Amino acid sequence: MTEMVYGTVPVRTGDPILPRWWRTIDRWSMCCILILFGIGLMLGLASSPPLAAKNGLEPFHYVTRQAIFGGMAMSLMFGVSLMTPQMVRRLAVLGFIGAFTALALLPVFGTDFGKGAVRWYSLGFASVQPSEFLKPVYIVFAAWLLAAGQQIGGPPGKTYSFAITAIICVLLALQPDFGQACLVLFAWGVMYFVGGAPMFLLLTIAGLVVLAGSFSYSNSEHFARRIDGFLSPEVDPTTQLGYATNAIREGGFFGVGVGEGQVKWSLPDAHTDFIIAVAAEEYGLICVLMIIALYTVIVVRSLTRLMKERDPFIRLAGTGLACAFGVQAMINMGVAVRLLPAKGMTLPFVSYGGSSLIAGGVAVGMLLALTRSRPQTELSDVLGRRNH
Predict the structure, then answer these.
(1) Cα separation of 46 and 271, whole Å?
(2) Confidence band (pLDDT; 50, 70, 90) for 73?
(3) What domain range includes position 215?
């Protein structure tokens, strides 16, 4: 009777793994992710040939690499989504140790590829950006600490998680990578808020962030240059923001036509950070709104399913992953339309980038694993049993 009333999915002992996975997974979110990846390949076909020609490569060199990295990402997403929450937590702890170590060693062994920020390890045939892999495992690790701190006799999880967050933000700011630092701090703040943090404390932390931003503006030429460019009333048409703004304006509602866009010939990062400008110019506002809708569906459905969970770890980790995913997309698109300063942040599953795609596959795989239907942990089932 409880299952009929609350619509839960029964879990039968001894079920094969794949049928059980298919019944319990959030299929809408998974389909939206696959569509986003397909859109990324389509936009890559339009945006990457100019860069390939400039570098003396085959026209679809970057699209081919994106398809390979994307295939790896989708495989990881599927594999991780099969895991139980306990397995996700263990993977996150091990992954956090490795990613944090790699991030800490960037000043010694990392490279900037001429972009002014030491964010990558060069492997010769490819590059790795540790911060991309750190985000999902950090969020789950911090959620575990926060959840453990809520238990009677548990460790001071809030203090430990905040200390780790502060260290990570400092390491990211030293690269400098203020965008990723803000995203990490935002994810922790969301989980802390969901975990029952007092509003006064969150406002205090927000004030400290403003002070840190003021200090960075005064002492970092890289940071100050981006803020000044954002605040300037006039946009230099020869800058990346200038090209992106003009492309979005030219696209209108329906775009200039497939392959007819010009911004890809001017923007060096048209296939990565400013991929949404290519979409807006060639396919118009309709395509951009569809992309926004796909991200919205993933975030809203994930949060809706997490509201039914009474396990603090699952609720906190899933909320952090979903919000970080949505905010990263919002930041990328906000930069392109000049609502935010330039951040150097990719659009999840749409932008080109091996580290971004593979780390995104792990992150969304964790989110899908945590949002799978588990009727034995839903609050509605507990209330239903009490009424019988």
Answers:
(1) 9
(2) very high
(3) 23-378
